[in-house]
Fold these 2 entries.
Entry 1:
Amino acid sequence: MQRILIVEDEPDIALGLQLDLRDEGYEVETVCDGETASRRGREAVWDLIVLDVMLPRRDGFEVCRDLRRAKVRTPILMLTAKAQDAEKVMGLDLGADDYVTKPFSPRELRARIRALLRRAAPEGEAVRRIGDCEIDFARAELRRGGERTDLTAIELKMLEVFLQTAGRVVTRKQVIDEVWGSGVFVTDRVVDTHVVKLRRKMEADPAQPRHIVSVRGIGYRCEE
Ligand code: CA
């Protein structure tokens, strides 16, 4: 299921968006101020962020900048109150991907969201690269220096999380939530065991990993 973070402080609009996008089959979380948005945008893995401009504490422009500085690459769709805001979104190098001007029609917004999600995950891009490894998601295999290794479903999901958060620290808890789901009991040790197996497949020297790096006391960081 694709996950969308909605950042909107007007309760009616937030609720409308939430119901509408849930109906469309997305998993949705709503936050209503800029500070929380910056934090949630960083600490969880999202497929898309819908970000209002006028927000309490930090405005949408600042949130967008925060997230891009923190290397969050999630597509961001800005909700702007007026045409000048839209100019700002597109004119400044904020890192937003698209904007919709308020008042918007739910139908238009849904179409923009679908387009952004498609752009972010084009179907032809089933092969991703980390260092000298090619990860073929469609064939569930990893190719490295002419060798092919099979990848398990768990390993594929973990790699997806690592690629989505590349360059940033991801906690074991985040990995568990993304790979197994938040309602499932999985210990940190299980995550570590799978990482060890992945490193054996990916790393030139699994004891000195260069791509799935341990961050002491927190989790991991993927370096492409
Ligand atoms: Ca607002």
Note: Helices lie at 11-23, 34-43, 60-69, 83-91, 106-120, 153-164, 172-179, 188-202.
Entry 2:
Amino acid sequence: MKIKENELDKIVNQVISSLNNKQNSNDFNTKINYGIFSTMDEAIAEAVKAQACLQLNYSTEAREKIIKSIRKNVSKHVEKISEMAVEETDMGRIEDKIIKNNLAINKTPGTEDLRTEAFSGKKGLTIVEEAPFGVICSIAPVTNPTETIISNAISMIASCNGVVFNSHPGAKKVSKYIIEVLNKVIMEAGGPENLLTAVNEPTLQTVESCMRDDRIAMIVATGGPGVVNAALSSGKKAIGAGAGNPPVLVDDTVDLKRVAKDIINGASFDNNLPCTSEKAIVALESIADSLLNEMTNQNAQLVHDIKALERVILNDDGSINKALVGKDAAFILNKAGLKAKSEDLRLVIVDVDLRHPFVQKEQLMPVIPLVRAKNFNEAMEMGVDIEEGNRHTAIIHSKNVDNLTKFAKKIETTIYVKNAPSYAGIGAGGEGYATFTIAGPTGEGLTSARSFTRKRRCVLVDGFSII
Ligand code: NAD
């Protein structure tokens, strides 16, 4: 029996539609792993296979098509992953995680970030291209679990790499979910299976074995000092995106009402989980009380019983109590036996001196210390002391161009935000692209596709130069 062409089309469409429906059901097909494996060995082997396929068969345009599809289709999961992340990690704010995830999806650069350099002259033409490393071991923090995975996935696919993700054990469910969604979207866009992989049960041992594996060409560690040091001592090419403790300087040339709003918005964004968020205010003595006034007139509360806060925020050894990281301001006050002025309080302020542990330690919670400086020079010195050479982020509010410039030169941070909340530095309300892997220690800065490439030179002598 002969099948007519239009009948054949109908049958093909029905098969495709039934396959799509199956994949859309959220009930992931057991035969397809969508990137999740029970052992690290399998996770690496599958990513190696997928990356080889990507490098051999997919042009830059084909990779861009996959990225476009990620931007379009992963957006549909943003609310769900933001809710899942808050529920699983018990940290942060859903509405802010939605903003962060959208930022990762829409503002992480794609293949347009890659550049070819050319040298031409009498001797011919030489080009330098940005080539993939191969398979990258990417380690993500609990504070931005899905944002880091999405942003790294876009950058690393743009640069033609495969990725083995190592999520924080405290965010394993939501991380697994987003890796499955990403793989599904990649495959629907015609990309290879298992381009992004992970193990079902991430632990410190699985990260270590991933970092050590010979098939891993590069390590990208986003997290605190422990993981960054482990990556840097691995003997492999490593990008370290480590901790920060961003100071925010305020001088006497600014509209304090606007500054109060910016600091509250930046320091309480996702309950201060971003490594870029304002962690300590350094205010000139002449305006410190007025600034506190403006902040407490808005949604911040000045707490005088500092001992009560110390008892719950600091452990006996002086370290930060992780159980309060990313919690709401009212919850923290309640734990300390203090009363919040409202349940939706955004920020707690304490007036302390420079050496106080709340100033010196990265707290990652909506409790911000304020220290007073006699003059701008002292404010700058305090800012440098607080930042501790992390080379991460600093913020300043000033209309004095000399002050803006002097502090920028002195603090030497990767991100320097002027007259805006800290998140302007990662593209939220400021110009420039977004990333959730800010590599201060190793110097790549705000990472993008080209950070995950190695340069290869191709030389043709006596040809192709047209001048
Ligand atoms: P963390 O260092 O505890 O964990 C980060 C990741 O590293 C996790 O996946 C964890 O399982 C793994 N890990 C931890 N110690 C390790 C070790 N010794 N060997 C191998 N893997 C290890 O950090 P966190 O609490 O998840 O995240 C918060 C920290 O990350 C803060 O210090 C914050 O400033 C920093 N951070 C930095 C950036 C950046 O771009 N620079 C972005 C987000 C978070």
Note: The longest helix spans residues 5-24.
